[in-house]
Sequence to fold (102 residues):
Amino acid sequence: MPSDLERAMETLIVVFHRYADTEGNKASLSRKELKLLMEKELSSFLKTQKDPAAIDRIMKDLDSNGDGEVNFEEFVSLVVGLSIACEQLYQAQKQAAGVKKQ
Ligand SMILES: [Ca+2]
Ligand SMILES: [Ca+2]
Fold:
């Protein structure tokens, strides 16, 4: 049976391809595919970014090889960046909860 971490990695691959396979290059996300992925899979994150230009900024930030698309490697850097931000929040919340108990 796969572990939690193995399942998480498989999920990343499956989710990426669910959107990347929709149009054009099947190995990368177009702007439209990225937008859909963000809306469906990262809706709580996107809610804090009401700016309609946010998706363009995110796309530009992620597209490190400058081909106008987001490949799996570039997508993973988004997930890692968000995970780091979430982990910091998790630590802060744990600390705040600890302080309250004392
Ligand atoms: Ca594609
Ligand atoms: Ca790219």
